[in-house]
Design a protein that fits this description.
Length: 171
């Protein structure tokens, strides 16, 4: 298996499984910790649109890419109500998944032709709360000129998002 095809992050959260499920599957709560304003509720088969509620500093992003050892690329403007993802499955309270364009703000990304990766959230009850595992797979399908950049940027992104959801559910 290609080591650059899959990102996996696990975190133990001090919150019960129902609380964590709510935080990842309620589109309004997801929006709060993820940093995007989603326009509609998650539902299997539904394409979800949204708007980023943050500004991106292209210079800092390109600097980060250099630090990760990848060829830097600028970012493309993301208009409001852009496709965020398409929901694959929701099996309460253990499995939620969607497909999206990995590192979709990349200036070299063509949303009309770009293949998607699969993002899976798996929840398991633990003695102290919930273990959340986030897996993004399918980077081997990303066009070669952006594959490593998309992988590295999302790898760091998921580490940050794991911390974001932890702060959100443990407050």
């Amino acid at each position: 298996m290609d080591p650059l095809d899959r990102i996996e992050k696990s975190i133990d959260l001090r919150a019960n499984i129902e609380r964590v499920w709510q935080a990842i599957t309620d589109h309004k709560e997801f929006s709060q910790w993820f940093g995007v304003a989603l326009d509609q509720p998650f539902q299997p088969g539904r394409t979800i649109t949204g708007s980023f509620n943050m500004t991106f500093d292209e210079g800092k992003i390109m600097e980060r890419q250099r630090a990760l050892g990848v060829e830097p690329s600028g970012i493309r403007p993301i208009p409001p109500s852009t496709v965020f993802c398409t929901v694959e499955r929701m099996e309460a309270p253990h499995a939620f998944s969607f497909r999206w364009i990995p590192y979709g703000i990349d200036a070299e990304c063509d949303p009309a032709t770009e293949p998607t990766t699969l993002v899976e959230f798996t929840l398991a009850a633990t003695a102290g709360g919930t273990r959340l595992t986030i897996v993004e797979s399918g980077f081997a399908r990303v066009p070669e000129h952006r594959r490593l950049r998309a992988f590295r940027m999302n790898e760091g992104g998921w580490a940050a998002q794991a911390n974001n959801i932890q702060r959100h559910v443990e407050r």
